[in-house]
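Lab notebook, bench 4. Still working through the backlog of constructs that have no structural model yet. Next entry is a single chain of 469 residues. Request: give me the structure tokens for it.
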Amino acid sequence: MRGFKAGLVGLLMLAPGAASAQDAPIRPDQEAFRAIYKELLETNTSLSVGSCTAAAAEMGARLKAAGYDDADITYFADPAHPKDGGVTAILKGSDSKAGAVLLLGHLDVVEAHREDWTRDPFVLVEEGGYFYARGAADMKGLDAIWVDTFIRLKAAKAAPKRTLKLALTCGEESDGALNGADWLAKNRPDLVQADFGLNEGGGGRLDPNGKRESLGVGAGEKAYQDFRLTVTNPGGHSSRPRPDNAIYQLADALEKIRAYTFPVKFTDTTKAAFAPRVARGDAPGKALKALIANPSDAAAAKLAMTDSGINAILHTNCVATLLSAGHAPNALPQRATANINCRIFMGETVEETRQTLIKVIGDPAVTVTANNPDKPIAIPPPLDPKVIGPMTTVAAKHFPGVPLLPSVGAGASDAVYFGRIRMPIYGVPGIFGDETNNAHGLNERMRVRSLYEGRDYLYDLVTTYVGAK
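Model written out:
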């Protein structure tokens, strides 16, 4: 607890600021980076038809062209999941006692169907100050930055003092794929073991007017878990309806889940992370301030939760995401199923959440099963001054006046798998986004300027950590 407070004091030394009005023209080194980003985005890595293995090979080829030896690059895959491969790389430091830093990223993306999108989701389009493509925000921009950083450090010729490692994996977006981060931690920890890792889960927040509001250091995340709701029934001929229709029973269960709100909870980290949102002074911000003072204030909670960004962090959230029922249009359904995706608040367990869903549904005919009950829970990394200090110093250079604060991820990341090797993973700040990024949704996009500025910040940050000249 003392480490948290000491780190937080240093973080709060920065004050709010705004972005400059004029975007700088693209530089030659940015053009080279853009080519990496484009190749990643235009390589389909969705579970249904894509291949992380192909994207890993492309990034490995770029590293090889930059001067890395075969011994520095390791491809990995499971024969049962040939398209879910990944790649690791190492840039050895000059001081073997100085430790190592890991750059972590996932290559896979959420499904995207061309008929739903305004633009082809697997063709990079730059338009109106944004990059559009599936993975533009989550998370091929950061993947490209990590590869670009490795290439730039190799070009510098002089080895950094500290060893730098890279791991680009698959399976973060779906339980149906081989999770490369999990596989590495279990089978090849030597390839990823480091003093700490840098991953997605941090970033920067822009207010509705595009002003830089805050930088976030990912210092914890909610747990991801899918629950399967199932109702079975003998079925029969549709001309002879019966009261225990599986579809109706499932629909009733879903309505009860929809109406239920998990209790509001706060941690020291979430309170600190909410500070810029409270400072806006709009209706949800004022309600959030009241709620922090009194978490039992139902009226404040209702108003605060109208802001999806606030609601995502206030408590456990469970929402229906998939639905399947019936076997013929002229038959009573024999089975109806739904997927309930939950993001579980820190300190709560999968089983506790399952029992809450069972209680809320209140119908023994509806079974509730955790899809991956043994998935580990993320361990919040310590706010170590040796990690947070450089983030703060470099942020003051690149984004003067913008506060750097600890944050909690509403989603989930591959950080959860590194607890077994006792390795802290931080969500890095640097890339500013807003609610319009629409990660996982239609027409996903990333601000061009935010990506280029984030790249500059993160390169300086990594070189600071590893002692590169």
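Notes after review: Residues 2-221+378-466 form a domain with the Aminopeptidase fold (CATH 3.40.630.10). The radius of gyration is 23 Å. Flag for follow-up if needed.
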